[in-house]
Amino acid sequence: MAATTTARRRRRTRESISPAAAAPAYLTRRIPAYELLDEEALTRLENHAEWLLSEVGIEIRDDPVALELFREAGASVDGELLRFDRGHARALCATAPATYTMHARNPQKNIEFGGNHLVFGSAYGSPFVTDLERGRRYATLEDFQNFVKLTYLSPWLHHQSGTICEPVDIAVNKRHLDMVYAHLRFSDQPFMGSVTAPERAEDSLAMARIVFGEAFMQENLVIQGNINVNSPLVYDNTMTAALRVYAAANQGNVISPFIMAGAMSPVTQPALIAQAHAEVMVGIALTQLVRRGAPVVYGSFLTTMDLKSGAPTFGTPESTLATLAISQLSRRLGLPFRCGGHLTASKLADAQAMQESTNAMNPAIMAGANFIFQAAGWLESGLTIGYEKFVMDAEQCGSLARVIQGIEIDTDQLAGDAYREAGVGTNFLGVSHTMQHYRNANYRADLCDASPFEQWSEAGCKDMQQRAYDRWKQLLREYQAPPIDPSIDEALLDFIARKKDSVADAWY
Q1: Beta bridge partners of 111
Q2: CATH assignment of the domain containing 42
Q3: First vs last C-alpha separation in the chain
Q4: How far, rounded to the nearest angstrom, does the alpha carbon of residue 348 sit from its chain's CA centroid?
């Protein structure tokens, strides 16, 4: 009995995790976004953002090129401090496209940004990894490659994100080459390149051109940079220079203020929201000054902090409200919206992790987000990515994908024939309608165990973390790399070798 149950579970698992599974390359919402604020409240927030940009100003440090672009566009530039007349920054954002396609190495995995579309991406930026077997440790290139593979294998993750974790065993000035190669070789989905220095952004573009071709990239988006604001009200040269590299090549930027209320903004949510809106408009405006029509995403990463300890907190009521409000401001600009995903301060995939992650993710869904990365794996306020948490989060993304489909009410769904066939007082398990729909009527969360207590006991009394551990191990054992033209692969490896040989290792 137990052996039969185990075999059945393995078969279901293979069906649900195969990259060839019948899952879309991106999602389309059929439920409305939640409108938290009325017109008066939204106008007050917008007016306060305009006040910040006109009276307080925003700095761009150590980037005279960006400052000159803004000066030529009519902004007031005093040293490194920018000020804008009311409405000016918003007007500069107007040429950014509302919707666009991001092309993948596999055209069947192209994704759409904006409108009623939603894209899930994996975690970003963690220097540590953790799993049940080896515990918490510094991430390596092998870990990075593993998470690229796990993202590729999930039918519910559409975008590789970028620096899924930091491979600290590779020199700082060279690891971007290995990361971009991993995205291009071990997956065929959209991805992000490096933003830690403009020359690393250029390397990322060069590797993308080897795969996609320079002419194609002149007209099409294939790679993005994740640009964070040095809040409060500061952009530094690292970010603006990388932004300019991607925009000049007609490639994408995701502009994301990362603000903890009380530290990087005033503690009150309206001030936080208005400040984030001001900051992101300046970044969007810069992309358009570099290249009119360059694709860009309006991003936000707004959360709270424990005002006693100073530690960041996630999944709080205040961050929920901030996400809902700022999504409305992004829609008023007519741009694709990004916010955070399964976020938690917990150190392992426990009840706190899933409670906070759910509390953080649900507002993103309700808000009508178009791009949610940090959707799988996040732990310890972003310091760690967890193997078990990753597959648990990915499965939850599948559940949320079902939610945004909404309910389709038609003759078939109302199932009148099923009532006629079953009659009164008879269950519906064997009727034709059930047999026609049973495979797809409900989303199946395979990591969740709904079996009787006796079967669960016979299978080892495993909790969710233990089942998730088994799952990611199985996934990596069964992984098969997507095909790539050998000549392209050789050209990528040759580019990496030449780049690495040209400079000494630097660990800072």
Answers
A1: 102
A2: 3.20.20.480
A3: 57
A4: 20
